[in-house]
Design a protein that fits this description.
By secondary structure, the chain is an alpha+beta fold. The chain is built from two helices and nine strands, in the order αββαβββββββ. It is globular.
Length: 156
């Protein structure tokens, strides 16, 4: 019985270790990524970078966002909170959440695999963007990925 229990624990631990993508997304070694902030007036601020320049590739899209925020020329004006649930963006560019009016910064991605069944979608420049179903640290960033931040009113 003890052997079966240890075997089960070993399988579970190995399974958790090999499927860490749910915790930390992958970032491609090369290509470009576009981060878009949808302003309250419907216009867009667009930030691009090359994935080769991103230093922290261990935390998915969070590393890309941090990289863009560190640039001397045109930083993101990012307010991000690291919590036990992962990184949470409360302000980016010209948009900022307002809990009193139940308006929050919502993340969309062009990588459908980082979404969930029935997730809302929006269109950006002819590309379908999917509401993220994982946190920034769990998001996959492939060459050509687009990450969109926008304000939305919570239905709760």
């Amino acid at each position: 019985m003890k052997t079966k229990f240890l075997a089960l624990v070993t399988v579970l631990v190995f399974s958790a270790m090999t499927s860490c993508n749910f915790l930390f997304g992958s970032v491609a070694e090369s290509g470009d990524v576009t981060v878009v902030v949808e302003n309250a007036d419907g216009t867009y601020d667009v930030y691009k970078t090359y994935l080769e320049d991103v230093e922290n590739k261990d935390e998915g899209a969070k590393g890309v966002i941090e990289h863009l925020n560190k640039r001397e020329n045109n930083p993101l004006a990012l307010e991000m909170i690291d919590s036990t649930y992962g990184a949470y963006v409360s302000a980016i560019g010209s948009i900022k959440e307002d809990g009193a009016s139940k308006t929050y910064v919502i993340v969309y991605t062009s990588v459908a695999a980082d979404s969930y069944d029935g997730a809302p979608t929006v269109d950006y420049d002819g590309v379908t963007m999917y509401q993220a179903g994982v946190g920034l640290s769990g998001m996959t960033v492939e060459a050509g990925t687009i990450i969109l931040f926008r304000l939305e009113v919570s239905p709760w």
